[in-house]
Amino acid sequence: FFRLQKKRRAATARRQHLKSAMLQLAATEIEKEAAAKEVEKQNYLAEHCPPLSLPGSMQELQELCKKLHAKIESVDEERYDTEVKLQKTTKELEDLSQKLFDLRGKFKRPPLRRVRMSADAMLRALLGSKHKVCMDLRANLKQVKKEDTEKEKDLRDVGDWRKNIEEKSGMEGRKKMFEAGE
């Protein structure tokens, strides 16, 4: 018993040690990835965004503003074009997925909620204040009289089962059954 407990303790200690080692490795990997992203960001900014040099005269400053506005407009146009392309592709994807569902014959059913509502409340919800007719569904049902079924008639016709057995017993009863079968 004590040996088994020692083994369990050793196994749990080893498991905890491995877990902590894996967490340390993961933390160092995350730090490395963050540093690599930062370096990549700095390289991209250095390549695409030259350092800003503010001119001293008013005219040069106005020309710089015009250039910046032109760049902003071109970037906005590209952004708008990419948004339109994205919307178009998502619409095409939805259409294709709908066609796929149609071809498979499987339709995605929306999740329905159970609502307890009477027929009157349902009509009021659909028609609004126009609804004035009271829907009593049980009043419109026909009353049906219970008709005698063939089984019940057969049971009544059979009567006492002892008489039936006495009639069929013996040679005469078997002769009657044989003749009735023909």
Automatic annotation (TrEMBL):
Keywords: Acetylation, Actin-binding, Coiled coil, Muscle protein. GO terms for biological process: cardiac muscle contraction; skeletal muscle contraction. GO terms for molecular function: actin binding. GO terms for cellular component: troponin complex. Residues 18-106 form a coiled coil. Gene3D superfamilies: 1.20.5.350, 6.10.250.180. It comes from the Eukaryota. SUPFAM superfamilies: Troponin coil-coiled subunits. Troponin I is the inhibitory subunit of troponin, the thin filament regulatory complex which confers calcium-sensitivity to striated muscle actomyosin ATPase activity. Belongs to the troponin I family. Binds to actin and tropomyosin. This is Troponin I, fast skeletal muscle. It comes from Cnemophilus loriae (Loria's bird-of-paradise). The gene is Tnni2.
